[in-house]
């Protein structure tokens, strides 16, 4: 039996947490032979609810769930952790953009970055899900000078999965046949979901779809605004699909991407050679191997794509400017 890994989940009594924790404990992210200890963080008023979630986790009798820690103290939650999934943050409501949350949610990630720096295991890998995810990731990482920037990532896998789902629906195929979509930039309504290098059943996706009007005027805005579409329909932001994308991200980061395939991950912008602004977390195509990842560089754009790439990069710089007083000392170093 492997040694248990310590996995922190913040916002553990929230909507995403309610789906994410059970899938982590079932082994969907880290493997069916990997025991875990869940270290769950909440704010003090939500601790009672968290106790209920922990009771349910216990009642599942998951063989891989070796222990649970429930706390409202980040230094306890992040003590010795191998993975940290930063979910705890306010969700947006109808009519808001994700960046409207920045001043409410940004400060959460200052203390969490410091606590991670102080307490996490050396190789900790950190996934930021709370919105605006890319900029919260930058804030967290900037307060953790002893943890390399590359060990932090913001989640754009939900956008990646949404893109695959829309393409499958359009072409009457299964998502398993769709490979190498790219989501560039920010997890926001400026993100650029790009099908130029994607394939459907082994053929170039633009050729199979053969409908540039659909791609530009329906597909791209739909993926960009899918979060808002769900809020309008459900009255709450996406939760199970967000948790599923979190599971996919950890699973891929940990166990690798098959063959030449890639997935979308928001990582330090300097790892890409595409001219993205420096010192932001930017979503790129990434390949994963042996628990690490690398950005797939050298892909080309047309003029349309180049413009979209710039728009989303500019927005990340604007967001960084808004939170400049929340950024720590570590920026590009590390
Ligand atoms: P929720 O309101 O149901 O749950 C959030 C939880 O976080 C609450 O239980 C709250 O008490 C807790 N929390 C707040 N501040 C905290 C802190 N400082 N420390 C620990 N816990 C804290 O919201 P949700 O639906 O679970 O969404 C959580 C976040 O994830 C939101 O910001 C949402 O916009 C974002 N989100 C991101 C993606 C993505 O693709 N990146 C997808 C969906 C949702
Ligand atoms: C999503 O993409 O569903 C989340 O970021 C939630 C939101 O506010 O859109």
Summarize the structure.
Helix content is 40%, strand content 18%. It has 334 residues and is of the alpha/beta class.
Helix content: 40-55%
Mean pLDDT: 97
Number of helices: 11
Rg from Cα: 19 Å
Number of DSSP E strands: 14
Give the overall silhouette.
globular
The total domain count is: 2
In terms of per-residue confidence, which ranges show pLDDT below 50 for 5 or more consecutive residues?
none
Features of the shown structure:
single chain; 334 residues; alpha/beta; Rossmann fold; L-2-Hydroxyisocaproate Dehydrogenase, Chain A, domain 2; 2 domains; six-stranded parallel β-sheet; three-stranded antiparallel β-sheet; 11 helices; 14 strands; 40% helix; 18% strand; binds nicotinamide-adenine-dinucleotide; binds (2S)-2-hydroxybutanedioic acid
Could you explain the architecture of this structure?
There is one protein chain. This protein has 334 residues and is an alpha/beta fold. The chain folds into two domains: 5-154, Rossmann fold, CATH 3.40.50.720; 157-319, L-2-Hydroxyisocaproate Dehydrogenase, Chain A, domain 2, CATH 3.90.110.10. The chain is 40% helix and 18% strand. It contains eleven helices and 14 strands. The strands form four sheets. The chain has a six-stranded parallel β-sheet. A three-stranded antiparallel β-sheet has the order 7-10-11. Strand 1, helix 1 and strand 2 (36-41) form a beta-alpha-beta unit. Helix 1 packs parallel to helix 10 and helix 6 (157-171) runs antiparallel to helix 8 (212-224). It is globular. The mean pLDDT is 97. (2S)-2-hydroxybutanedioic acid (LMR) binds at residues 91-92, 98, 131, 158, 227-228, 230, 237-238, 242.
